[in-house]
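Supplementary notes for students who missed Thursday's class. We covered one full example, reproduced here. Read the sequence, then the structure, then the short commentary at the end.
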Amino acid sequence: MTIKHLVFGILFIWGRSLFAGEVITEKPRITWLFNDKGMEHWEPVYEDGWLVEDSALTPSKKHRKNNFIWTRKSYGDFILTLQYKLSEGANSGLYYRSDPSDPVQRGLEVQLLDGPSKHSPDGSPDKHSNGALYNAVAPSEYNNRPSGEWNALLVYARGSQVTVYVNGNEVSSADFDDWTTPGENPDGSKNKFKSALSTLPHSGKIGLQYHGDPVWFRHASVTELDSNSPDLNRITPRAPLDDADLRYWLENMDAHGYTDGEASDATGLSVEAIKSARGRFGLGTDGTTTKQTGDRLRVMPYPGGRHPRIGFLNGGIDPLRETKLSVFLPWDARAYVVLDVPEAIHSNLGLSYLAHTHVPTLWTATGTDLAPLEWIRNEDGSFEMERRLPNGIVYQVYAVPTKDAVHLRLALTNNTAKPLSGLRVQNCVMLRGAPEFAQLTRENRVLKQPYAAVRNAEGTRWVISVWEPCNRVWGNDRCPCFHSDPQFPDCEPGETVEVNGVLAFYEGDDIEAAFEGLEASGWGGFFK
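Structure (token representation):
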């Protein structure tokens, strides 16, 4: 391996670590309003108005008028996540901070609608479109999946500010303190409300609406917020070191299909500065500035700024980019999966590392800073990264792309005075950037320890992850992602232990044969 370091940054923003001074001692308190089973957190308007069907909450056809189901409890500041599925042309809604006795006037709604709004002659999003803050704010885009497929919804309500995410994208937001006139929006357009929206309570029930069309809901959770809760919308930028570094990251973001706004979020530069730099460097925005070479898969550091998940965004607030590599599909130069290595390292000491910033670890509980890192990009196309934790634990990651796979090694050195055990690792493969694999389902996974694989709808293309020694294989249909998670051997002081993995691609319909082929290839000995 050639060890010529092109870029190795320990970045400091405004003269300080990205995480300085933040003490996190408690996990977010998540309440599962509906987790595919009972309705104990809900009160339907009609006793037989809603039911559980195929692990989803769905309305009964017996009642078509005023058929709501409301939470038993009221919620003020919160993060609400759920998945919804709409039948063709279906109209529904998610109500929040609402009074069930008069939800039309004393409630706020996120519109759920399959297809364009009938109020929009040209089909462009309006204040009645999917993802709209109903009658108040139009969504920026219509990004529903086709009818019959699951979508991810997140509503973030904090004080007067409300933000709505659909399938990972922020589509609408408002500061309702700006709604000071009854029946009127700040832009002068009319709305249905007899009271100014700024006067409505910041607390109330959460409700699901039946409008006569079949709809389904699942994976509904709410996280109640207080003054110490992290900001879900927080994005920590990484300032480029110089013009050469800025050019690299803009080319990288072009390959990922970033907008100028997303590039601004990732770098901390203004949109105008991004546009100026593109012109200065002669860069386009079509991803053609970076080509895939013929001798190896295209792999790049994930640039951050855009969340690599579609759903469950509250499970990974402000994710750190230094653990993430984008691996582009061999048959599609614009599609990629994001490999998070490591996403987490557990040990007998506790949670020793986590690639998110909102869950307590050994370090956040004491306010100890972890300096942000960047991948070392070697001339031979390989990548490496080393993290030295404050207690003396050191982990190193090596990634070597070949024509058909990315070979991976994760090593851990124990420089503490005590033995380490229970060294479980989470290595995640996130699928948002590869649409043919990114359905919110577990039905496209094959899990056969140590192999974990995900297929496209036709079952003709596959992404495979395998690590040894493997602790478990699993998949998450909320992100969506899949895992082959290894476990280090116990490690005495002064010792180094390692685990090895591979991310591979397969075209064909015999995944068992693909597993056998990988086994026969001797991938586990790649670094020996």
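Commentary. Residues 1-21, 286-290 have pLDDT under 50 and may be disordered. Helices lie at 103-106, 243-255, 260-267, 271-281, 511-521. If anything here is unclear, bring it to office hours.
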